[in-house]
C-alpha cells in the first residue's frame, strides 16, 4: 500500500529554514513499530502520523515520534501537521475550518490556522497543559551539560529547572547571546543528569534587550547530542515561566532559534494566566517542502522505546 506523506518547514516563511517535520497523512493500519521505523528513517526531530479521530467532532488522532521514541506532545509537529492537513483538504476540495482539533496522548490540542489572502500560511496552538514547574538543579550542573562556565548561567531570575506545558524540558537561562553561541551538549554530563523529572533535553535561552531585536534567543540540545532548529513546546514553557516569575498575566515574546544551525526560526509565544495557572500559545509560519508516497509492507524488527 502506498501512503502519502508531506514535509513542512515550521516557524519560517521561506523554504529550507525553520524546523522540518514529516507528516504521514495515511497512517491507518501502521503498527507502533512501523511508525517508529519510519520516524527513524525520516531522521527529523519529529515525524507525525495522522489517524482517524475517536471523536468525529475532532479533526484527527495524531501520534508523534522522534527517531528514538514516541512523545505525548510537541510544538512544531502539531503546527506542521495542521498546515499539511489544511493543504490536503484544499487539494481535495474540502472546506478548511479556522481551527483544527487533534487527539493526542497528552489530551486534545487545538490549533488555529493563520491565513493570508485566503491561503493557510501558518498556525498557532494552545498547549494542552498549564505550566508545571518541577526539579531544579545547580548552575554548575547546567554548565556541565552545555560545556560552559558556571558564570555563564544566570540564576537571578530562576535556577535551571524542569518545566512543562505538555512535554518537559530542562530550561536554563544564560548570561549572554555570546554564551549561548558557545554552548555545546556534553554527553557525559547529560548521562549523569538526564532524564530528570521527565526531561530528556536542555533548552537554553538568553534575553535580548536591544531595540528592535527579538526578545529571546534560544537553542535546544537533545539526548542524542543533536540540536533542534525550533522547539515550540519548550518555548511555550519558557514564556509561561517568565510570565509567572514576573507576575504578568499576559506576556508576548518573539523567540529566535536555529540561527547557529543556519535554519533561522521565529516563534511567537504568548503566556496567558487563568485561575492562577499559566497557559502557552505558540505560533509561526509554515512552508510546504515535499510531497511523496512511501510503501511499508510487513512488520519491522525495531522495537520502540517507551513513551517519554
UniProtKB/TrEMBL annotation:
Pfam family, one: PhzC-PhzF
Cellular component GO terms, alphabetical: cytoplasm
Signal peptide interval: none
GO molecular function, one term: isomerase activity
Coiled coil: none
Active-site positions on this chain: 46
Family to which this protein belongs: Belongs to the PhzF family.
Protein name: PhzF family phenazine biosynthesis protein
Source organism per UniProt: Bordetella genomosp. 10
Taxonomy of the source species: Bacteria, Pseudomonadati, Pseudomonadota, Betaproteobacteria, Burkholderiales
